[in-house]
Amino acid sequence: MTTLTGTLTCRDAGEAALVQEHLPEHIRLSRAEPGCIKFNVERSDDPMVWTLDEGFVDAEAFKAHQTRTAASVWAEKTAHIARDFKRVDHA
Predict the structure, then answer these.
(1) Is residue 91's pLDDT more than 90?
(2) Of 2, 10, 24, 63, which has fewest CB within 10 angstroms of its CB?
(3) Residues 6+ apart with CB under 8 A from 37
C-alpha cells in the first residue's frame, strides 16, 4: 500500500477559490481510479489550508494516479499552490 498525507496551502483568497472550484472533480476522478483505497482532501480550521489523506493499493496504482493528475485541469489550475506531502510505501 502507498499512502500520501500532507497539506495544500494557499497564499490568498484567489488560490483558495481555485482549490474550491476544482477540488470536487479532482476528488471524484481520483476516487474512481483503479487501486484507489481512499482519497480525502478537506479544508482545515485554517481557510487557506487543506489536508489530504490518500491511499492506493500499491506504488503502481499511485504512479498511475500521479500520471493522470499531472495531465489534469486540477494540475494546470493549482500547480503554483504550495504542497507539503509525505509518501510512505508500506510493505
Answers:
(1) no
(2) 24
(3) 1, 55, 56, 57
